[in-house]
Amino acid sequence: METVLERILGSAALDAETTRPPRLLAAMRHGALNGGKRLRPILVLEAANLFGRSDQGVLEAACALELVHCYSLVHDDLPAMDDDDLRRGQPTVHKAFDEAAAILAGDALLTLAFDVIAGEAVHADPSVRLRLSRGLARASGVGGMAGGQMIDLESEHLDRSEADIRQLQSMKTGALLRYACWAGAVLADADESDLHCLTRFGEVTGLAFQLADDLLDVEASAETMGKATGKDAEAGKATLVGLWGIDKTRDELARLSKDAETLLEPYGERARVLTALADYIVKRSN
Amino acid sequence: METVLERILGSAALDAETTRPPRLLAAMRHGALNGGKRLRPILVLEAANLFGRSDQGVLEAACALELVHCYSLVHDDLPAMDDDDLRRGQPTVHKAFDEAAAILAGDALLTLAFDVIAGEAVHADPSVRLRLSRGLARASGVGGMAGGQMIDLESEHLDRSEADIRQLQSMKTGALLRYACWAGAVLADADESDLHCLTRFGEVTGLAFQLADDLLDVEASAETMGKATGKDAEAGKATLVGLWGIDKTRDELARLSKDAETLLEPYGERARVLTALADYIVKRSN
Fold first, then answer.
1. Listed residue (A31, A22, A149, A44) closest to A88, CA to CA
2. Smallest CA–CA separation between A31 and chain B, in Å?
3. By residue range, what is the domain housing residue B13?
4. pLDDT (tens digit, 9 = 90+) per residue, B124-152?
5. Total domains, chain B
6. How far is it, in rounded angstroms, from Cα A198 to Cα A184?
7. Which of A33, B125, B165, B193 is the least buried, fewest Cβ under 10 Å from its Cβ?
8. Which cofactors are required for activity (chains A, B) (predicted)?
9. What is the CATH number of the domain that holds A175?
10. Has the ipTM of the complex gone over 0.90?
């Protein structure tokens, strides 16, 4: 994965006729090659693998999705958004470069994703590549991730209902995780009932991911700072753990974990890695 | 065109299953439905028309390109970039809403373009839609418009050579104008030699557009403020008119105008509107 991302973000343009300005490319690399967990592309790979496909083309599609995720982090970190100076212990892009470079690097990472997903290796059938490209646009845009981020920013210091928070999270973090599992199945020509099952698995996994994230935030603050509210609560962010408390959230996570397992049961041993991934998401500590 | 843009940016999502947060949608509409000249989409329509295609699908593709142009204006106007409070006499998106909304609205307009260009009406053949989508990504990204904007920001208060300024402009404004003419021909299944000719016409038109823009900037300042340097010069922007002076720039514009006409001569009367458009670009006063 890192090798493919490194090549995609190398100084040689995918389109041999164009040049890539070095400073913008450096800002894009800073935003994308920073030791992320690569959870979304790994879900793509494993979902495709479940239906018997694992080759370079799947990796390319997986990297396109990761570029979208990385662009969203670069923009979310900006002073006008979450205003974060550090990500994974490194200065964020606008700190390492400047705000203009971070805005443009995010824009260019997002745009590059739609170049990469259209690549011939991704799938022999252009209509499948187009379906993947359009799906990526829908998962990322006003009805998906970008829309969710907007609702999240608006939700600060507002009392939101459980339904509102679920909607927000299904857009902000859920949409890309659902896309990852769906796209893997599409890449491997899975049939409609398998696509449906993987999409459901992606939804459940997305919700579990968000709950685990919220729990981590509260628990990390309790341990390291001796207080029971995390930085989400201090920022006035609407979370389900804020609404439910820790115990109910843990119960819900266990239920989701069981759901994910049940969804993959029909695939037996072949789904071992995907099941382990879902388990990691529930139990992860960072 | 406005009707189609209005529908694309309506509250009903293209994908019926998703919802669009009202405030983000409002910011996107503010950035896109603000009385622009629609030069790029008109070039798409007229280039397609030259080869006998004019239908709803061409309009959709043209609007996808306009969404990309509008996103770039929303982001370029941000305080960290060109820091403009007004566009066409209206508050810019970050003034009418806030910076976070402007960043997300730009992101979502860009993303929406890749949803729209993949629409079935655009072309019956998915591989043509994919070609248009990938071309749009390349014209807009690190090797095109976004890269050009980065070089432009870096160029402030630097002495740039003519070759450097040409490179910058061919990326920043040239890439989308070239794409517009190429895409129109692709939409209408023009053959390779016609594609080549329209691409060249797009390049010439792009360069003329930029020179006319630079001249307008200098001349408007001379008339309205009684001084011979425009706001580009004051911002330390690298322009060819700054390098050449007004007279040489006018000569070059006349030459480009002639080139554009010559490129379209083989198409005779059918190219009347495109020729008039190129002429308008050279002679426009705003």
1. A31
2. 14
3. 2-283
4. 999 999 999 999 999 999 999 999 999 99
5. 1
6. 9
7. B193
8. Mg(2+)
9. 1.10.600.10
10. yes
